[in-house]
From TrEMBL:
Keywords: DNA-binding, Transcription, Transcription regulation. The keyword Lyase does not apply. Signal peptide: none annotated. Gene3D superfamilies: GntR ligand-binding domain-like, Winged helix-like DNA-binding domain superfamily/Winged helix DNA-binding domain. CDD domains: WHTH_GntR. It comes from Streptomyces sp. 900116325. It comes from the Bacteria. Residues 26-93 form the HTH gntR-type domain. This is GntR family transcriptional regulator. It holds the Pfam family GntR.
Length: 238
């Protein structure tokens, strides 16, 4: 692993270097930001970790100016923050952030199911995310399970067939991944939701969008409550 900043261990950037191939045709700040956003969504950069300008620009083979613009874009999305004389860090969410994330999720994800229209629905992405999560759980890969869960909710919102909704949810769910890091036992947190993901997917496959929406609303409230309690415990322990 790479160096330590503020007591946190930085990730090995060899995997990130492989992403430089994605920039072969477009070395824009937007594309760099998309790569870093995806890595945050996957849990690669945990909350509080410092992002080394030198290391990341070298790994992605982009200029520092391009990387700085990407950092600026991600700061606007509330994923990064610049600390004066210290550098750029992945944000550590506050309880208010968590509450607002779930407010948006409830509005967007439930509305996506509520407005589906007549079945059958195109559930390819939904089914793929559920299966990936189940396979990750069987392998004991709980970070992978967490990523699959994010992809599942992206796929639910994607049923709205709205590019603007997709963009909104990419940003919201990347922030959500930062909240997941507060859970001390990721298996205990994620494992029950594997079954619930499958149940929602099955309801949609049966054409019962209204039933799937009701299940999702309870699901989101349970998830919000668990994370809020974990945040409260962390604050009490300080």
């Amino acid at each position: 692993m790479a160096g330590n900043a503020g007591g946190r261990t930085s990730p090995d950037l060899s995997e990130l270097a492989a992403d430089s191939a994605l920039l072969a045709r477009s070395g824009t700040a937007e594309r760099v930001a998309a790569i870093l956003r995806d890595r945050i969504t996957e849990g690669y950069f945990p909350p509080g970790s410092r992002l080394s300008e030198e290391s990341i620009s070298g790994a992605l083979a982009v200029s520092r100016n391009t990387l700085r613009e990407a950092f600026r874009l991600l700061s606007h999305e509330r994923l990064l923050e610049h600390r004066l004389n210290k550098g750029v860090f992945v944000r550590v969410l506050a309880v208010d952030d968590l509450v607002d994330i779930y407010r948006v999720r409830l509005l967007v994800e439930c509305a996506a199911l509520r407005t589906l229209g007549e079945p059958p629905y195109d559930l390819m992405a939904v089914e793929a995310a559920v299966s990936t999560g189940e396979q990750a759980a069987l392998a004991g890969d709980w970070p992978g399970c967490s990523t699959a869960n994010i992809r599942f909710h992206q796929a639910l919102a994607g049923l709205a067939n709205s590019p603007r909704t997709d963009e909104l949810m990419r940003n919201v769910l990347a922030e959500l991944r930062l909240a997941f890091h507060v859970m001390a036992d990721p298996r205990r947190f994620h494992e029950p939701y594997l079954t619930r993901n499958r149940e929602i997917a099955d309801r949609l496959a049966d054409g019962d969008a209204a039933g799937a929406e009701r299940m999702l609303a309870f699901y989101l409230e349970d998830s919000r409550r668990q994370l809020a309690e974990a945040y409260a415990e962390r604050l009490t322990a300080r």
